């Protein structure tokens, strides 16, 4: 197991290097950039230098006057020294902005992920054990609706009903207008109130796939020979389902759980932007649209690293969930 993990980590480092290079090339080839926008704004000031002169000066200031290869290795060298530069869009160090936003996204992601597991897996099991019943059809319709609904449409629908029509929640933001006048508990409840609709959005649009996945795999396991043998031996239906069948259904579910690791830290770009929640997804969206290469590079490479670690975690968990799986 130790040799396998070391080997996979070394492979992940190589993959991460090439992923980082591709990301840097894409960032340098963006149709718009912070440098261009800044140069255009400064050149329009009375008595200012021309746009081309500002572009040349800013390119030298931000080390963007060299080739893509030299720029990438310069960024890589700074990264190894723990220096990710300053965010052009937010005018603070990249790590400072990341630390200010990632934990809010992590809390949202963790709560929605736990709710997703608690709702989707039991419903998937119920749908499989009661195949072709009214409960199965109802759960399948809900799952397909969750898979089919676009995030922006469902979020807009929630805001229309619960914010505009009923007035239960604010349309945007993390805090209300009277936030500073509230007590500590009141401020916490105010933030929780603003996170209700975003978390509902994340849960509904993500649980459909897990629900269908659990149902499909559970049906496959329930039709296996050893399940029929367990029933023939007189074991209770509850023990057959939750002790024998569900344990073997966990292996494919582990793949989803491991792959969900990046989502806990990478935030929900569409949801956070629609609800005005200042998390890491919200910050990354406006950084990319502004051509903020330092912050976008750090965020995308960080997400790629989490994806590789999530895949490694899923492979290791296989051996934990199923004793038959052994990694030599």
Can you characterise this structure?
Helix content is 76%, strand content 0%. α1 packs antiparallel against α14 (293-321). The protein has 2 domains: 2-80, no CATH class; 105-321, MetI-like fold (Orthogonal Bundle), CATH 1.10.3720. With 328 residues, the chain is mostly helical. It is globular. It has 14 helices and no strands. The relative contact order is 0.14. It has helices at residues 2-28, 34-43, 51-61, 68-80, 94-129, 134-148, 151-165, 184-222, 225-232, 237-259, 261-266, 269-275, 280-289, 293-321.
Q: What name does CATH use for the topology of the largest domain?
A: MetI-like fold
Distance between the termini: 7 Å
Number of helices: 14
Shape: globular
CATH superfamily of the largest domain: MetI-like
Name the helix and strand elements from N-terminus to C-terminus, one letter apiece.
HHHHHHHHHHHHHH
Number of strand segments: 0
- Percentage of residues assigned to helices: over 70%
Write the layout of secondary structure elements.
Layout: H1 2-28, H2 34-43, H3 51-61, H4 68-80, H5 94-129, H6 134-148, H7 151-165, H8 184-222, H9 225-232, H10 237-259, H11 261-266, H12 269-275, H13 280-289, H14 293-321
């Amino acid at each position: 197991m130790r040799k396998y993990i070391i080997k996979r980590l070394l492979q992940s480092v190589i993959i991460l290097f090439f992923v980082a290079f591709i990301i840097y090339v894409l960032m340098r080839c963006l149709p718009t950039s912070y440098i261009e926008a800044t140069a255009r704004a400064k050149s329009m000031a009375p008595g200012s230098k021309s746009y081309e002169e500002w572009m040349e000066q800013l390119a030298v200031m931000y080390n963007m006057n060299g080739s893509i290869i030299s720029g990438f290795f310069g960024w890589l060298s700074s990264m190894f020294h723990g220096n990710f530069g300053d965010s052009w869009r937010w005018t603070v160090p990249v790590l400072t902005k990341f630390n200010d936003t990632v934990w809010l996204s992590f809390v949202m992601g963790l709560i929605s992920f736990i709710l997703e597991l608690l709702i989707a897996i039991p419903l998937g099991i119920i749908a499989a054990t009661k195949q072709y019943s009214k409960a199965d059809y109802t759960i399948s319709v809900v799952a397909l609706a969750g898979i089919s609904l676009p995030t922006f449409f469902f979020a807009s629908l929630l805001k229309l009903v619960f914010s505009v029509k009923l007035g239960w929640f604010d349309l945007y933001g993390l805090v209300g207008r009277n936030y500073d006048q509230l007590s500590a508990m009141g401020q916490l409840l105010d933030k929780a109130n603003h996170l209700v609709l975003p978390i509902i959005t994340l849960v509904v649009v993500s649980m459909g796939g897990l629900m269908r996945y659990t149902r499909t795999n559970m049906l496959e396991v329930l039709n296996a020979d050893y399940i029929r043998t367990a029933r023939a031996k007189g074991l209770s239906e509850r023990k057959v389902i939750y002790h024998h069948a569900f344990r073997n259904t966990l292996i494919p579910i582990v793949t989803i759980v491991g792959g969900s690791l990046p989502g806990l830290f990478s935030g929900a770009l569409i949801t956070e932007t629609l609800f005005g929640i200042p998390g890491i997804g919200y910050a990354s969206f406006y950084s990319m649209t502004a051509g903020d290469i330092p912050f976008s590079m750090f965020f995308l490479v960080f997400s790629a690293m989490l994806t590789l670690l999530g895949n490694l975690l899923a492979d290791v968990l296989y051996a934990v969930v199923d004793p038959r799986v052994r990694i030599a």
